[in-house]
Amino acid sequence: MEQIRVFFKKSATYQLLQILAEQFEDFITTLGEIAQRGLKTLMCILTGQINWKEVIEQSSRFGVSSLPITISIVSMTSIIVAMQVAGEMVKQGGGNYVGLLVAMLTVRETGIIMSGFAIISMIGSSLASEIATMKVTEQIDAISVLGVDPVRYLFVPRVIAGTLMMPPVLIIASTFGILGGGVASTAVSELSYKAYFTSVWSGLFIYDIKVALAKAFVYGCTIALISCTCGYMAKGGAKGVGIATTKAVVWSFVAIVIWDLIFSVAFFF
Amino acid sequence: MIKVEHLIKKFDEKIVLNDISFEVKDGETLAIVGFSGSGKSTILKIICGLLEEDLGKITTTEGDVAMVFQYSALFDSLNVHDNIIFALQERKELRKKYTTEDLDNIVKEKLKLVGLEGIENKFPSELSGGMQKRVSFARAIVTNPKTILYDEPTAGLDPISSTLIEDYIVRLKEETHASSIVVTHQMSTIERTADKVLMLYNGKCVFKGTPKEMCEAGNEYTKQFVTASLTGPMKMLAE
Ligand SMILES: Nc1ncnc2c1ncn2[C@@H]1O[C@H](COP(=O)(O)OP(=O)(O)OP(=O)(O)O)[C@@H](O)[C@H]1O
Ligand SMILES: [Mg+2]
Q: What is the per-residue pLDDT across A199-235, written as a single tens digit (0 to 9) for each?
């Protein structure tokens, strides 16, 4: 019996199961941590424990420093879509719908999801590595010993900044996206700017914009919270910081795709 | 007062602290010595609440517990000025007590104490290791704590800065009557600051007494430590 156990423990099946179990445990722990920190952050916000100076600093990081990348990614996406479809649509007599298509696509989907991806790769990763570094160099321990709650000091301003800055970023990036789509469509086809923008107007619905803004709030909050939590959970040295950053990026990506699915089902189905 | 009774701490299956008890009265300083990895930092972290004990009881006088970290742990996004007044600015009950001017004066005064005037606007990355240590010392004592834990406060300092810090540890103790624990490897620090010494080996306490007894008494462990000898009851553990 003993021999069988030893043998089994060496087998690939066992090791595979073990890795799966560890991964699952890690998944559940992370989920729990996110929920716990999220609740605590919410409590701090509700009881007004907010350092506005820090919020402004983080907001500029979230909203201003990320703008060039966000704008480029969102407008590139619109330009690519416009270039792919404009010529063909005009040929098939659908020239009046190019603007509508680009506007609808940008407002409903590509604007927010591409801004989300840009923010994750720029801001989310930097939040996570910043907090993870503080964790592994005992700076977070120092915060606690000095009698300050690390969640209040680190999470609250970042989560507020993420939540508040995502909508403006989205609006600016989407505007550029639609403009970019116009430039591309007129460049590759006979379409005039006037025709494009008339059609854009018919594709913009207040309802869509409202949903997009709601998404922006939720995604911004999610990205900031996940990135901070993953950083906070870092262990070990430089390697731990790397692992935490990767985890923050992967989790944020998956989370906003899941949110996107939920929003699509809830509002457009 | 710091009172530790029958403290046991495990990391996974490894017992790091095995039934440690000691008491530090008000206005007293205890030095903890022992091999690297013998759990000295762990004791301090348990006392200041960063780690949870597995078994045992810890009592400290009411009031702040301050800690000087082994690797300084300065906030690298803040300059020296903001590092030092961090607690005064971020703690709700303290924030309203001080004007900007007060804070500036406090920073000046504390920096003078540790011999580093005029570096308020520097960032931790621009300081040497020893300077960082002294700034972290200034940061820890800014709230007038009743319990002060020093994790190797003089490691990596030149002898003169060490003496400066040691003198200050003594002065602070006399002025505020705080109880403190100093983790150190240096005999000079023990001799200058400590009233009592506790020696750890293999998770157990192998010596408790005054610095004088440490040098004189016929304890094999302390004899080995004081003479820095390779032969004796303590062996470097190969894990
Ligand atoms: N978070 C942790 N997880 C697992 N093991 C740990 C952890 N922290 C410390 N240990 C282990 O506990 C033991 C004691 O560590 P500690 O840092 O207290 O040593 P130390 O006496 O302060 O050493 P040094 O003189 O090098 O600072 C070490 O063997 C270390 O491996
Ligand atoms: Mg240590």
A: 999 989 999 999 999 999 999 999 999 999 999 999 9
Contacts of A146 in chain B (CB under 8 A): 66, 86-87, 90-91, 139-140, 143
∠ CA B203-B206-B210, nearest 5°, is 130
Run of H or E residues at B37: none
Go through the domains of chain B in sequence order and give each one's CATH number: 2-227 (3.40.50.300)
How much is the ipTM here? Answer: 0.91
Q: Which amino acid is at B26?
A: D
Side chain identity at residue A64, one-letter code: V
Confidence check: pLDDT of B237 > 70: no
pTM over 0.95: no
| Mean pLDDT, chain B, integer | 90
Does residue B183 contact residue B155 with C-beta atoms inside 8 Å?
A: no
- Evaluate: CB of B125 within 6 angstroms of ligand 1: no
Look at residue A136 and tell me if it is in a domain.
yes
Residue A138, min C-alpha distance to chain B (Å): 6
Give the mutation target among B20, B32, B41 for probing the ligand 1 site: most ligand atoms within 8 A of CB.
Answer: B41
Tens digit of pLDDT for each residue in B11-20?
A: 988 999 999 9
Residues of A in contact with B44 (CB under 8 A): none
- How many domains does the structure of chain A reveal? 1
Give the span between the Cα atoms of A217 and B199, in whole angstroms. Answer: 56
Rounded to an integer, what distance in angstroms lies between the CA atom of residue B207 and that of residue B153? Answer: 22
Residue A115 CA: distances (Å) to CA of A127, B20, B133: 17, 55, 43
- Residues ≥6 apart with Cβ < 8 Å to B21: B4, B5, B6, B7, B205
Which of B237, B223, B238, B232 lies closest to B33 in space, CA to CA?
Answer: B223
The Cα–Cα gap between B111 and B134 comes to: 8
A18 in a structural domain: no
Q: For residue A123, what are the domain limits?
A: 46-264
Cα A90 to chain centroid, rounded: 35
Chain A residues whose beta carbon lies within 8 Å of the beta carbon of residue B65: 145
Tell me whether residue A12 is in a domain. no
pLDDT tens digit sequence for B122-153: 999 999 888 998 899 899 989 989 999 999 98
| β-strand pairing of B196-201 with B29-34 | parallel
State what percent of residues in chain A have pLDDT above 70: 100
Residue A4 lies in a domain: no
**Going by DSSP bridges, is the β-strand pair B2-11/B14-24 parallel, antiparallel, or unpaired?**
antiparallel
Q: Rounded to whole angstroms, what are the CA distances from A117 to A35, A105, B145?
A: 22, 16, 46
